[in-house]
């Protein structure tokens, strides 16, 4: 009996998350109440509060379901014992692009995050967590690029911090553009070509060399970070 009760609770939790995903996608996060989700899922508000503290907690659980092994791959680029950190970086980008293009649920949840999530007061915790994740991802990308420089895979004078800002912006920008105009960007088939173009920039752009003229990037010491839009951590 206890096992069946546990299974039923898990089924209810999944139904709530599935329903929230579709209602958020249709109405937007700020215009969706927990009552809306409860009615659509055929459960009580009490059932929702049994599984989730509030709407932001439910949103985070929904987002967690579509996460990829991003952290593990990024860590591999940083590993000093990794002989090909640049290829591992490429693997990260390919995984995100191809994995999103081939997974309707992941694409739908990212669409909610990018375009249908207004970070009002009740979603402040979500915004804080995602901006922290973005900052951490950029720093790890910079460390991975430095590892590639040390292995002779990238120019010795590459500004890794500036390149990481470009890399992270490329990742989120490509996803956002594809979500808005999937008929204009063949992400599944041309991801490799887009990544090749980015890596060409890392190798050849004078603006990504140490000492290039221009203001310091937000990641540079002593420069406070500018507010950023949420995106893929």
Give the structure's gist in a few sentences.
The chain is mainly alpha-helical. The chain has helices spanning 2-27, 34-41, 45-51, 55-64, 70-78, 85-101, 104-115, 124-150, 160-180, 187-204. The chain is built from 10 helices and no strands.
Report on the structure:
The chain is mostly helical and 233 residues long. It folds into 2 domains: 8-57, Arc Repressor Mutant, subunit A (Orthogonal Bundle); 66-208, Orthogonal Bundle (Tetracycline Repressor, domain 2), CATH 1.10.357. Helix content is 67%, strand content 0%. It is built from 10 helices and no strands. The chain has helices at 2-27, 34-41, 45-51, 55-64, 70-78, 85-101, 104-115, 124-150, 160-180, 187-204. α1 (2-27) packs across α2, α7 (104-115) crosses α9 (160-180) and α8 crosses α9. The radius of gyration is 20 Å and the shape is elongated. The protein starts with a helix and ends in a 29-residue tail after the last helix. The model is unreliable at 220-229 (pLDDT under 50). GO terms for molecular function: DNA-binding transcription factor activity; transcription cis-regulatory region binding. Residues 222-233 have a biased composition (Pro residues). It comes from Pararobbsia silviterrae. Residues 213-233 are annotated as: Disordered. This is TetR family transcriptional regulator.
């Amino acid at each position: 009996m206890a096992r069946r009760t546990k299974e039923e609770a898990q089924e209810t939790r999944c139904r709530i998350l599935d329903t929230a995903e579709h209602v958020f996608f249709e109405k937007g996060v700020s215009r969706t109440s927990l009552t809306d989700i409860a009615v659509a899922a055929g459960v009580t508000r009490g059932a929702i509060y049994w599984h989730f503290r509030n709407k932001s907690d439910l949103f985070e659980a929904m987002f967690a379901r579509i996460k990829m092994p991003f952290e593990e791959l990024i860590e591999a680029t940083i590993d000093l014992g990794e002989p090909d950190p640049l290829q591992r970086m490429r693997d990260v980008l390919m995984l995100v692009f191809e994995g999103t293009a081939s997974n309707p649920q992941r694409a739908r949840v990212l669409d909610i995050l990018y375009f249908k999530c207004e970070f009002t007061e009740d979603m402040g915790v979500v915004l804080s967590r995602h901006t922290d994740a973005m900052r951490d991802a950029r720093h790890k990308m910079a460390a991975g690029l430095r590892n590639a420089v040390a292995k002779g895979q990238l120019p010795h004078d590459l500004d890794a911090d500036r390149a990481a800002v470009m890399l992270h912006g490329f990742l989120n920008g490509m996803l956002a553009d594809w979500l808005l105009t999937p008929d204009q960007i063949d992400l599944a088939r041309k991801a490799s070509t887009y990544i090749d173009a980015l890596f060409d920039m890392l190798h050849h752009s004078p603006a990504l060399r140490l000492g290039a003229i221009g203001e310091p990037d937000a990641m540079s010491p002593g420069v406070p970070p500018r507010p950023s839009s949420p995106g893929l951590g």
